[in-house]
Amino acid sequence: MAAPRAKAIGMISGGLDSTLALKLIQDQGVEVKAINFYTGFCITETQRRLGGRSRDGKIPRNEALRAGADLGVEVELVDISASGYLDIVANPRYGYGANANPCVDCRIFMMAEARKIMEREGADFVFTGEVLGQRPKSQRRDTLALIEKQSGLSGRLLRPLSAKLLPPTLAEQEGKVDRERLLGISGRGRKDQIELAARLGVTDYPQPAGGCCFLTDEAFGRKFHDLLDHRDVRKIERDEIVLLATGRHFRIAERVKLVVGRTEGENLVLERFADGRRWRLDTPAHLGPLALVEGEPDYDQRVLASRIVARYGKGRSEDTVQVRWTRGDEEDAFEVPPLGEDAGLEAIRV
Fold it and tell me: Contact 236/228 with Cβ under 8 angstroms?
């Protein structure tokens, strides 16, 4: 009687590494169910939600679904953006990377979720596209071992691209996966992966570019830390992620922040957040940005915010511009001179 077919849960982003890992495991006859986590911080998914396009003008696509379709593998989209994940992001046990990326805590959380799915599906192991030494914080040998242990996946977390450089997993020891057909890739280069993709016939994949996470972006990271550093409790709401990714942000005072739209699309996004909790600013006599103010600004802070908004509109060359403030039933207006080019805005820009 033939041994039952092994089953695995593959964590897939649709990038080159995770696609290759999926192909390697699939080619060994293992039954694979792929999962893709939605955190709320994915740049491409945020572009899709906002109706935007990537820098090359193309409509952003979900690469995980594309990879699953190419390889004939089921992909389950798992939304963790409303779970305890945001608490992890705001208060990571193992700290942040260069910007606002809590990579170690993030991986532990996702692996633990993958373990639950593995148990639910009756699968034998979980695998990822991680490469030893590729990322300085989360893919060192010690952190790979830490993540495996803390997620509850000891012995059941396989990294096919670097497996020969890591201790054998239970799947390898039990013969469910042939270790000799796995790889020993390490480091930040992608030459080996690109050559492997050509050999395996994997041709449609995004160019390797360091991931799709806002938390690794320097500008987003500044806004993220500014938001949390000016709160009594380090907590972030799901909708605030979109707001952080939209517009120019200015810290007017300790508890007062101004967000100014840069495009018509961003104005439409900001309009969604003008819900009575924030002041909505516009210039009724001139085309220009929509802006939001969070907090309770005093008179001088309102004037400054108004002058900044006037600066970015079509009335920037006028002597004065009227800036309208509304919040629920509250209304106000200021006739102000737009700030000039040498106004020192960079000192307060987040």
Answer: yes
Write the CATH number of the domain with boundaries 7-214: 3.40.50.620
The type of residue at 137 is K
pLDDT at 173: 97
The tens digit of pLDDT for each residue in 55-88 reads 556 677 889 999 999 999 999 999 998 778 999 9
Query: Residue written as tokens 């605030």?
Result: 240
Sorted by where each begins, the domain ranges of the chain are: 7-214, 246-347
DSSP reduced 3-state for 237: coil
pLDDT band, very low/low/confident/very high, at 49 (cuts 50, 70, 90): low
**Cα 28-31-33 angle, rounded to 5 deg:** 125
Tokens matching residue 310: 């006037």
**Tokens read off for 155:** 């012995």
- Please tell me the distance from the alpha carbon of residue 100 to that of residue 116, in angstroms, as a whole number: 27
Its pTM stands at 0.88
Cα–chain-centroid distance for residue 148? 22
**SS3 category, 145:** helix
> Could you say which DSSP state residue 99 is in?
S
Q: Which amino acid is at 215?
A: L
Question: Could you identify the residue written with the tokens 């949390």?
Answer: 228
Beta strands in 90-149 (DSSP E): 125-127
109/278 Cα distance (integer angstroms): 33
Whether residue 254 is predicted with pLDDT greater than 50 in this model: the reply is: yes
Condensed to tens digits (0 to 9), the pLDDT of residues 153-211 reads: 999 999 999 999 999 999 999 999 999 999 999 998 889 999 999 999 999 888 765 56
The whole-angstrom separation of Cα 239 and Cα 192 is 40
| Structure tokens belonging to residue 73 | 């593998």
CB neighbour burial string for 71-80, b if at least 16 within 10 angstroms, e if fewer: bebebeebeb
